[in-house]
Amino acid sequence: MSAVATTARAAERRSWGPAWYGLLVGGMIVGLGCFVYQWVNGLAVTGLSNTISWGMYIITFMFLVGISAGGLIVAAGAELVGSERFSSLQRLAVLLSGAAILAAAISIMPDLGRPQMVWRMLRQPHWTSPLIWDVIIIGVYLTIAAVDLYILTRPNPRPGALRTMAFFALPAAVLVHSITAWIFGLLVARPFWNTALMAPMFVSSALVSGLGLLIVTAHVVDRTTEWEPDRNVFDDLGRLMVWFIAVDGFLLFAEILTTYASRVPDHLKQLNVLLTGRLAPVFWAEVVIGVVVPFAICASRLRKRRGWVVAAGALAMVGVFAKRINIVMTSMFMPLVGLEPGIPGGRPGQEFAPDPIYIPTWVEAGILLGLACFIGLVVTLGVRYLVVPERRPAG
Amino acid sequence: MPEDTKISPVDALPEASREYGAIGEVSDDPRWGMAVDTERCIGCWSCAVICKSENDVPLGMWWNRILTKGEALDTPETSESGGLDMSWVPLACQHCDDPPCMKVCPTSATFVDAEHGYLVEVNQDDCIGRRYCMAACPYGVRVFNWGEPEYAVDGFDLGMVEGRPIGSVEKCTMCIHRLEEGQVPSCVWSCPAQARIFGDLNDSDGELVRTIEDRGATQLLEEKGTKPKVYYLEERRRRSL
Fold this sequence. Notes:
Chain A has helices at residues 3-41, 56-67, 69-80, 90-107, 120-123, 130-153, 161-185, 198-224, 233-262, 265-275, 280-299, 306-333, 362-387. Chain A is mainly alpha-helical. By secondary structure, chain B is of the alpha+beta class. Chain B has helices at residues 9-12, 15-20, 46-54, 100-104, 132-136, 176-179, 186-190, 207-215, and strands at 32-37, 65-68, 77-78, 84-85, 88-91, 110-113, 119-122, 143-144, 169-170, 196-200, 230-233.
């Protein structure tokens, strides 16, 4: 890169930097304000009810745990198979993992009715609860990301240190997604969740969305800073994406086919909500945007052009988010004991809600905006102080 | 209404009513259970309403409700003979012996109370309001305090139990406060059709266990393996309107 271009880029960064930080901090303030407002007034300010008692917060939590996959698995996988290709991405990848899992841990807070009591999970953990397993594995995963990042940013990394870490990072990564899946998959009350495929599906869509995040962020960071990834790395990431999407799509198909063919009434009723019912638009968006289109891009020659790979990564993330919505909502719409007049909604004037709808409110949107800005800030600061210096000439 | 002006409904009752509501003989290690006779139930919602006032259940929620079989709330089923049928499923916490809600609670706020007849109880002090138990309950009987609890008439709380804090989950306690006074739950006591039988499932000679055996009682969603302590007595004949 010529000196002129570098100076021009630096100048551009200087002009846009304050606005970008201002945007992120502003968004975080809005989010914090919404959180306090919700804390004072209760979850009544959300669109949730006793029937649909989990909503955007849980969906976001699942999504954030998922997108944390890409980084550590790419970094650790690269280390274990001795791949040189991805080493230029390692710092960014681990940073993204850490930021996403940190945000996932934080995203549990707004979903609590009594956030001030959260410490009781630590004082008196109930070991049969998958939530406790999840708290532990998220802690472990966050620690591994932090240690990895420390190793990667030291001036002279000890050879093999990262490789040793990879032996812990990979099982932890598989576990963090599996346990998050088991929060749902182990419930007998929700036939649509209660499948052994839940954990494998979580791992596979986590890989898809995590890789998507890595691709999109690597592109943005490459364009806005002097950090430069390996020239061919986007092609390689696209190639990896083909396999991840193929496995994810296959598991989804296997699950749907099994449910459809076995025709267990409760289970089938929930499937029909997805295929033809109220959630059909979201489900088919998941299939087309999240599976078909990105697969077609990454499996074809379009992969050679970086713009297409980045588009595929973004679409894959959107698709996986749609999938999270579908997983949570399908079961929530359909209580097992479905006789009239249904489950009481929970608020004055909401005695019963036999056919409930869930529309997220501005409070939920505000809190999620704050969370997104928090991730943006962590990643921006991380890129600036931990990722970019990698490429700076010594002295 | 200040706390000290409350009179226990049990104390307020005439002697005859108190005798009517007495639990009676129990074993050394009582395991409280209930049988709901759907043949006797007339779907009047008396038990649901008295539950609401007994337990100060806020507006918008019910611990106990009457589900209607059929196409809709006020649309009866068509029987095999072409007549109209109506039947109901009174539904509250099933107090499972293997409760899915208890297993998933991260703080043990929901627990099986071995000292109170193995009922499934919630200690709201420990509840963090994650609502995992609500997702885990196959019966949909748990309700959440979404906002500050509100009542039909401000300050006019008839309840005999403490209110639950905002952001916590609550449900049927089997009127544990009445059981402590040797009285059956208020839904049992108040049923005008005497459709509910309360008793000790460990007392093999008691009316409850005998009725369950004689009538071949069933449990709701038995296949889920939750082992409810609430049984349903099926109709031996169908009423036609």
